[in-house]
Amino acid sequence: MVPTNYLFETQFIPTHSSSFFNSSRYFRETIVAMKQVLLLVIFVAFWEASSIVANTNNTGGEENGFNPMPKTTVRVKNLLDEGLTFIIHCKSKNDDLGPHVIQPNAAYEWSFHRNFFGRTLFFCGIHWVDGSIVYDIYKTSRDFRRCSADCYWEVTNKALYGYAQDSPNKDIEVPWSPPQN
């Protein structure tokens, strides 16, 4: 016959001193770490979602949604001689801003929020009767300090000129390629 306390003697019942997993400190630290990871994942997901929403819906106008990244405005002004116009067509990974004809002394501008990972890039094709350019008009790696809030460009007969924020001096010059036929 089996003694009545046999089941209790053969069952494994871990004690505080014999089991690493029974430690209340271990469980507290695990829960805290899991909460931190979950919060980080949620934060990054919302941040990236708001960047996409801001970029697609806020390319020329009002603020939509929350985005903690600073807003940047790019402005490209027509300073071509003799009343000439140019066509500008700008794109990013998420946005195609479409072609625009820019009249003499007018400017084309749009605003956006840089993405969280610092990879925002807008490139533009600019074409006029005597030349054309395809150039990265905003690239975070170059422009993040150069023009964090306002990036100003001038289209002239000689070249496309870029200006650092709050500076009267040109710091980028992009010469024209021969016109495309």
UniProtKB/TrEMBL annotation:
The keyword Signal applies. Keywords: Secreted, Self-incompatibility, Signal. It comes from the Eukaryota. InterPro entries: Self-incomp_S1 (IPR010264). GO terms for cellular component: extracellular region. One of its GO terms (biological process) is rejection of self pollen. Pfam families: Self-incomp_S1. It is found in: Secreted. Belongs to the plant self-incompatibility (S1) protein family. This is S-protein homolog. The lineage of its organism: Eukaryota, Viridiplantae, Streptophyta, Embryophyta, Tracheophyta.
